[in-house]
Amino acid sequence: MPTQPRKTARSSRHIAAETLHRRQQRREPVTILLNELAAQHALAPNDRQLAMNMTYGVLRQQDYLETLLQKFCRQPLSKLKPFVRYTLLIGLYQIMFLDRIPDSAAVNEAVKAVQAAKLPKQLQGLVNGILRNAARQQGQLPQPDAADSHGQPFLNHPPWLTQRWSQHFGQHTMEDICRANNQQQPLVLQVNSSRCSRDQLRDLLQKAGTAVHHGTHSPEALILTDFNGRIENLPGFHEGYFQVQGEAPQLATGLLAPIIPDGRYLDACAGLGGKTSQLLGACLQMNSAQATAATQLQAVEPEARRRGKFLTNLKRLHPDQSITPYPGTLQDFAQHCTETFDGILIDAPCSGTGVTGRHPDIRWNRLETDFKRYQSIQLDILRQAATILNPRGIIVYATCSLEPEENQEVIELFLTEHPDFRLSECAPLLPPAARILTQGPFFAPTPAQGIDGFFAARLLRDPD
């Protein structure tokens, strides 16, 4: 029987450095890259979590860390071998930001990573010398909130992106957005209110020693400010008491209200099923409150991997219910669909610039040309949804982007083509605490307001 090739062990620092190097080469999400490497090298779950924390930490503080590194490096950073460069940035991140890891461990593990990469001893010495100097001088080094050599704050975002945001939001708000994005983000839970109350879950988590408090904007949100463990180890996970979901997307599903008796609803871009689960809860609540035919919910998700996770998540959150997503595009679904819907939720594919605090690789992977490319996809999805919507029906269009091309411009183009639709105000359907997050008729928070960047519009079809 042939033996399997032995997996070579690598430290979490080594995996993080290699992940950062591959991201630079391939511009792919670091979760995908890191998972590939973690599987290849049999990285333990705790080590994988540390590798992800360090990878995200470097990406959140990249400008700042590179400025520090250049102070200790005689040659331009571009001349360093990429693996060495990223190993040094990870070491600096540990020294400057991770109090729980001793500086000596940060230095030693960085040197070991270079050794494991079979790089020359002189590079091992370079890494050792730079990081030891940085650890000794830590108290005299500029802090993350200091100004750079030009008197500007460390924004840690590509200049083309900050220039856009400055034009759209103003300089002050742009800096606030960047500042918020550069912080480690808290874990946000959406309580499955069909199975437990928010206070019940909060008490359960607190008894287990988890620091948790109510969300600011969503009545179903709980915030875990300092959680770095595995989600499935939290009390209530396997019982289906919650799912991980930011406050902004939690609020978006409520914009389909009112859920009507006998109504038919569609999650047109279901993904992993987070919003489908929320909509299902609303439909079940309606069904229990009235005796006529049940409110129905369907979903569309073309990607097989996501459909698998959708089914797993839905079984955990609503074990007595069954929804099988249509395994194709919305265009395919619309062509084969024999019924129409009273409400359609579109959580559209987008650039994700509103959540680059949670996923800091987004800011470095994006190109400015991406926004028009996404706009074309988003507008096509809206057009397809319109073909299967009832008169007096509602479309909620949502993205986690901050860019006008993907948000207001998409709505303007759609309304120009579809005079039988009109915008409806989002504010009346939001909880009072969330109404400050609107801009005109839109729900449009930014990270500067202590919440993920998001956009949602409510489109009503006029009667025939």
UniProtKB/TrEMBL annotation:
GO cellular component terms attached to this protein's record: cytoplasm
Role played: Specifically methylates the cytosine at position 967 (m5C967) of 16S rRNA.
Organism, as annotated: Candidatus Desulfatifera sulfidica
Annotated active site: 400
Encoding gene, per UniProt annotation: rsmB
EC number from the UniProt entry: 2.1.1.176
The name this protein goes by in its record: 16S rRNA (cytosine(967)-C(5))-methyltransferase
Domain SAM-dependent MTase RsmB/NOP-type as annotated: residue spans: 177-462
Keyword Amino-acid biosynthesis assigned: no
UniProt GO MF annotations: RNA binding; rRNA methyltransferase activity
Subcellular location per the Swiss-Prot or TrEMBL entry: Cytoplasm
Alphabetically ordered keywords of this record: Cytoplasm, Methyltransferase, RNA-binding, rRNA processing, S-adenosyl-L-methionine, Transferase
Family note: Belongs to the class I-like SAM-binding methyltransferase superfamily. RsmB/NOP family.
GO biological process, one term: regulation of DNA-templated transcription
Top EC class of this enzyme: transferase
Catalytic reaction annotation: cytidine(967) in 16S rRNA + S-adenosyl-L-methionine = 5-methylcytidine(967) in 16S rRNA + S-adenosyl-L-homocysteine + H(+)
InterPro entries found in the cross-reference section: MeTrfase_RsmB-F_NOP2_cat, MeTrfase_RsmB-F_NOP2_dom, NusB-like_sf, NusB_RsmB_TIM44, RCMT, rRNA_ssu_MeTfrase_B, RsmB-like_ferredoxin, SAM-dependent_MTases_sf
UniProt binding sites for S-adenosyl-L-methionine: 301, 347
